[in-house]
Amino acid sequence: MPDNGHKGLSLFGHPWRWYWLALLVIALDIATKVWAVDEFMHGPAMQIIPGLLKFTYAENYGAAFSFLADAGGWQRWLFGAIALGFSAMVTVWLWRLPASKRWEPFALALILGGALGNLWDRMLLGYVRDFISVYYGSWHFPVFNVADMAISIGAAMLVIELLFFAEKDSGDAKKSAEV
């Protein structure tokens, strides 16, 4: 295996620190979902910002925006397999990144934690528990959870990296290869 800047395999060094971050996202996601079930499954929603944000409870049997939610149950295994395969890919990707990188592995750890948090629900329950509702008037964004936020933030970070920093990183790699 090539040396990607790993200075030993310390439990909190690279790449383990990113796996710990993913585990933190999973724990936070599951804890908030348990809280939401206890608070809102059989009770009223909680207005956080009236007319804009509330906590409620919803079960999503599909994927993003309830895609294939009414497909009859087979989608649980399809989305589970996709999440598992994607998580394996991200785990390897994190392992292979140089220790000097910070932004990209942080983004990947958020995505990994979010994917595994929702996978936990999907495999254990057959659906994903959502509880954050953003709305304005009659417009409602699909209800989501902490895992969805982590995935979205991580994906946005990767896009920012690609659009604004990828050329700089490749230029730095070229300079070090020439030396």
From TrEMBL:
An example Gene Ontology molecular-function term: aspartic-type endopeptidase activity
InterPro entries in the record: Peptidase_A8
Enzyme nomenclature, EC number: 3.4.23.36
Subcellular location: Cell membrane
Catalytic activity as recorded in UniProt: Release of signal peptides from bacterial membrane prolipoproteins. Hydrolyzes -Xaa-Yaa-Zaa-|-(S,diacylglyceryl)Cys-, in which Xaa is hydrophobic (preferably Leu), and Yaa (Ala or Ser) and Zaa (Gly or Ala) have small, neutral side chains
Membrane topology, as annotated: Multi-pass membrane protein
Pathway(s) it belongs to: Protein modification; lipoprotein biosynthesis (signal peptide cleavage)
HAMAP family: LspA (MF_00161)
Role description: This protein specifically catalyzes the removal of signal peptides from prolipoproteins.
NCBIfam families noted in UniProt: lspA
Protein name: Lipoprotein signal peptidase
Protein's organism: Microbulbifer marinus
Gene from which the chain derives: lspA
